[in-house]
Amino acid sequence: MKKLILIAVIVTGIVAVGWEAHRRIVASGDTEKPNRSVAVAVEVQPVREGMIRDIGVFSGSLVPRSLFVVASKATGWLRKLFVDIGDPVTRNEVIAVLDDEQFIRQVEQAQAELQVAKANAENGASALDLAKREYERVTALREKQIASVAEMDAAAAQFNASQTQMKVTLAQVAQKEAALEAAKLQLSYTQVRAFWEAGDPNRVVGERFVDEGALVQINQPIVSILENNPLVAVVFVIERDYPKIQIGQQVMITTDAFPGQTFAGHIQRIAPLIREASRQARVEIEVPNPGYLLKPGMFIRAQVEFATHQNATLVPFSALVRRSEQEGVFLVEETAPAAPSPPAPERTSQGPAFQVRFVPVTIGIVNRDVVEVVEPEISGSVVTLGNHLLEDGSRVTLPQHRTAGTEQESTPSGSTDGSGSVRQGGGQ
Prior knowledge:
Helix 2 runs antiparallel to helix 3 (149-188). The protein has helices spanning 2-31, 101-143, 149-188; strands at residues 40-41, 43-46, 48-71, 76-81, 88-90, 93-98, 191-194, 202-208, 215-216, 221-238, 250-255, 263-270, 280-287, 299-316, 321-323, 326-334, 350-360, 362-366, 370-375, 381-385, 395-399, 420-421, 424-425. The protein has four domains: 35-52 and 310-423, conserved putative lor/sdh protein from methanococcus maripaludis s2 fold, CATH 2.40.420; 57-64 and 227-309, Elongation Factor Tu (Ef-tu), domain 3, CATH 2.40.30; 73-98 and 191-225, CATH 2.40.50.100; 101-188. It has a six-stranded antiparallel beta barrel with strand order 3-10-13-12-11-14. Strands 1-21-17-16-15 form a five-stranded mixed beta sheet, with no helix packed on it. The protein has a four-stranded antiparallel beta sheet with strand order 7-6-4-9, with no helix packed on it. By secondary structure, it is an alpha+beta fold. The protein is 26% helix and 38% strand.
């Protein structure tokens, strides 16, 4: 029993000591609130007016405007292949020849069968003419009551049979003529041509799929033909930038193959849907390629200028802060000097004290260096370094070598030279 009482007393003492320590810690924390009378050393830059551009940058690949495969329409040995990879090709040019001996024999056979059919047609015409005259003669005799009815019927039957036979022989002639045309068409298939209608009449061979001497089957690819002037740059635009894309917008294309060189193009097609998986839409940009420098498959970057604002109110991006769920900047305002603090060697280089005012802002175009302030109208200088330590009404000091009057040398690059906001788009 005594042991239990002793343990209870010890526990009670520990709890009391802990509570007292907690109370002192809380009290100490309450007394260590920020003291606005202590000036915070900061850096500032002036609010300026200038031009700012909203530029979207997207990555993608070049594809040919037209790409098709030339295949054989007949089966045979590939006797000759006239083109290879990279060779130019013109419209309706013969690029390959198949062994045509079998097809020549088929044409000759069809011609012979046509001659037979025509000869039969001539015989049928002669027989029809003879039967017609006999029918007319018997008809005349019957009118004079010289020929009998049986002779009249026999002549009429023979005439009708000759007419029917003539129709059959003429149909056979037409059939043999069609067979001859089909044989000639099959013979023409031994000359494989690259044919297209619209677009550039001069194109190039992209790939070769067979070699000379190979047995080519019907519809077997031989070469691929592509159009590389103009080319099409395919990029994918995120949902945020999709409303800004318009058909006809000018685009500047750059590629690692030609550093420092740009190629102009324009947006030709915009997909009417956004892919659910990636939340991106396909955009096709037509890029003229008269010198054939660009090649299909190259990785490219496309820059699209969405908007340009002249005489915009600009502040450095580093000036933006959030306070009470609002985005804004700290404007520097000169105020009366505070009561002197105890001298400290490290404070001798500081300038006079100033006061800051937090101003909520509505921003427009944003890039990595500069931000457009749409509302409200502001002027003066904003804090760019040390603003994370500030609250509305905080006192600040500025380095002697950087004051609001000489701050023009510290303006951020890119705000008045046409810099734009960067949008990263997905590649193919």
